[in-house]
Design brief:
Strand content: 35-45%
Radius of gyration: 21 Å
Number of strands: 21
Largest sheet: 5 strands, antiparallel
Distance between the termini: 59 Å
Number of helices: 3
Structural class: mainly beta
Helix content: under 10%
Low-confidence stretches: none
Mean pLDDT: 93
Length: 288
């Protein structure tokens, strides 16, 4: 396994796995979310998400060794994943990210996941991990890194993993943007769909869940009346890059109830009620 830095840097070099592991390592806890199939409209929330401990070499240490030039505008990564995808042939899985690496992330060349060696089926022996970015950017079976002046030309940057750009009225503009940073998102973990909950003596029911984004989530709004009235939940502060817990107690009447939750991050990105891949989560249950 070799990792090479070329093109818009002063140095080019290779590292095998043992050389890579001899460098000072770090462990980062980060939420990891799958974007889903790029062949489908980005209108369904898949909930393929989890909180993961990654151990590896901070990418910036490798880039510093390469001595990047000012002409470097993008970082290309390539993984040993080849074959046919929807009629498109590719001998590598090639992705790119803007360079310099955004300050709100801390990418790793990861070789451990949750304290165990990264197995082949999860992209081992080494994969890129980019906290705050959707999983499609965390290239598996990593074999090459290069710094370039333009975006990568491969099909997974030019054809796939691009989404329409909408204006402030929600109308498509005909333009697209790369699937890079995570969208603001949240999920309700309690109560479960179809559950029956008993109210407390004060007529309230406890509700909780998780929220995440490419940055800090500042609030989660919750409604029990079809989004007519929203109440703000308590949200734990984010440390490092993990998801955040939220909770609230709501007064509810006996009978069927539908709960809606939507997060707002520190950039004022808001979950849409419906129609997007990160739309508000809804859970229906019974209250007695």
């Amino acid at each position: 396994m070799a990792h090479c830095l070329t093109s818009h840097s002063k140095r080019s070099f290779s590292l095998d796995l043992s050389a890579l592991k001899s460098l000072p390592s770090a462990t980062v806890t980060a939420v990891h979310e799958c974007f889903g199939s790029p062949l489908k409209p980005a209108t369904t929330n898949l909930w393929r998400v989890g909180n993961v401990d990654w151990t590896g070499i901070p990418l910036q240490r490798i880039l510093d060794l390469a001595q990047p030039l000012s002409s470097a505008k993008y970082m290309w990564t390539e993984g040993l994943d080849c074959g046919s995808f929807h009629g498109t042939e590719a001998d590598r899985y090639q992705k790119d990210l803007p360079y310099p690496i955004p300050a709100n992330t801390a990418p790793l060349l990861a070789y451990e996941v949750n304290g165990k060696p990264l197995r082949r089926n999860r992209g081992g022996p080494v994969r890129l991990v980019v906290p705050g970015y959707l999983g499609t950017n965390s290239t598996k079976w990593l074999c090459r890194i290069s710094l370039q002046a333009e975006r990568a030309p491969g099909p997974f940057t030019t054809t796939y993993y691009n989404v329409p750009v909408a204006n402030d009225k929600g109308q498509e503009t005909g333009m697209t943007r790369p699937v890079w940073e995570m969208d603001v998102n949240s999920m309700i973990t309690f109560p479960a769909p179809g559950a029956t909950l008993k109210r407390r003596e004060n007529g309230r029911v406890a509700v909780r869940g998780w929220c995440w984004s490419c940055c800090h989530v500042r609030t989660v709004k919750v409604s029990v009346d079809g989004a007519e009235i929203w109440r703000m939940a308590k949200v734990d502060k984010r440390t490092k890059f993990e998801w955040q817990r939220w909770e609230i107690e709501l007064e509810m009447r006996p009978g069927r109830c539908e709960l809606i939750a939507g997060a707002i991050d520190e950039r004022n990105n808001v979950q849409a009620i419906s129609g997007t891949r990160n739309h508000c989560h809804r859970v229906a249950f019974n209250v007695v």
